[in-house]
Amino acid sequence: MNDKYHMNNDSTLYMTALSMMKSIGPSMARKLINAAGSAKEVFELKTLNHAMYKIPAKVLDELRDSQTMVSAEKELEFARKNNIQVLTYYDPTFPFRLKQCSDSPLVIFAKGSGALESKHMLAIVGTRKATSYGRSVCKKLIEDLKGLDLTIISGLALGIDGTAHESAIESNLNTIGVLGHDLTRIYPHQHSELYKKVEHNGLLISEFSREAMYTVGNFPSRNRIIAGMADATVVIESAEKGGSLITADISNSYNREVFAFPGRISDEFSRGCNSLIKGQGAAMIEGAQDLIEMMNWNNSERPVNIQIDLFECLNESEKEIAQLIKKNDNVGMDFLLTHSALNISTLCNILLQLEFKNIITSLPGKVYSIKA
Predict the structure, then answer these.
(1) 249, 270, 295 - which closes a domain
(2) Domain check: are 163 and 253 in the same one?
(3) CA-CA distance, 329 to 335, in Å (whole number)?
């Protein structure tokens, strides 16, 4: 395990303390950090105008409570002793796709030998009561994606989630299990062996500390991380009101791609997928090739010979974005935002200008490529 993840410095300590507070969530915490200048200064309360930012009394009480910092110190010490990575929102190693989400967690805890990022990130979700058809579809999809620089993300639940992780491991693909509880707990207990496999072959991650309450509300929170870490989400079998549909909705809200496998109209666990497709909440796919083509992953390694510097019509900002696309090819808006200093409105305008100048082309899956 790389020591860079165990930065027991002020930033990590205070970010962890904020993330463990019961009176605020990630969005409010970031507002306080932006107002104060740093997580540490939030706790010092010197630069915050309490009235202007309308900080509730219960938040101020928790910030002033010495136990808040004690709990964070204990959590980081536990992480250090148990080889758990602690990544804060402002760390350069924090998953860049997740960082683009407005409700991204302040801190994530991770354990395992796998990678947090790969060129392609795919979430696969579905019912806990998977049929043999659903399991077969899931396994075949992942087998046919073997060979890509790809990570399979799911929630380690029974059914489709478990099949997705197992199939990823069998296909030698990196896999990430996102938990709805802290890393010391195993749920469901039937997956105790699968937890070990995922930790050995990939990563277990969670935003929850050991002090966090274990409630059913944790799972929608977990779903936003599954959706936020992925380029696209695939739904394989879901009832009309299944939790997988929550993940699909969140993915759509993040402007990420959503795909679903259709099923027979009479099947209970096909109704959710069929409804998604019918309501245009997901694109229909029948196999890996559909997904690869719609995400334009099949051409991701093709050589690019165009020389951007020859285009005198480009200004410096346009050259910067064009070079990023040339170097990485088939990149999305999230990647470009993360690797440039531009805001989203400026970036959108530059991309539009580059298309007008016939330098880049917009591809399915909200990605951009140099025009051949």
Answers:
(1) 295
(2) yes
(3) 11
Across 41-55, 60-74, 102-116, 279-293, least confident range? 41-55
**231 and 153 within one domain:** yes
Report the share of the chain in percent with pLDDT over 70.
90
Q: How many residues does the chain have?
A: 372
Mean pLDDT of the chain: 88
Count of the separate structural domains present in the chain = 3
Among 130, 199, 113, smallest CA distance to 164 is for 130
Of the candidates 278, 277, 233, 222, the one whose C-alpha atom is nearest the C-alpha of residue 255 is 233
Rounded CA-CA distance 167/138 in Å is 8
What pLDDT is stored for residue 277 in this prediction? 95
Q: Which of 270, 295, 320 is the last residue of a domain?
A: 295
Tell me the C-alpha distance between 183 and 108, whole Å.
Answer: 11
Whether the per-residue pLDDT at 338 is higher than 50: the answer is yes
Has residue 219 been placed in a domain? yes
Q: Measuring CA to CA, how many Å separate 219 from each of 15, 115, 246, 287?
A: 22, 23, 10, 28
Exposed/middle/buried for residue 81 (C-beta within 10 Å: 0-12, 13-18, 19+) = exposed
| Cβ–Cβ < 8 Å for 205, 178 | yes
Q: Are residues 337 and 284 in the same domain?
A: no
Confidence of residue 46 (pLDDT cuts 50, 70, 90): low
- In this structure, the answer to whether residues 275 and 205 fall within a common structural domain is yes
End-to-end distance of the chain based on CA atoms, in angstroms? 41
Q: How many CA atoms lie within 13 A of 126 on its CB side?
A: 34
Strand partners, 178: 205
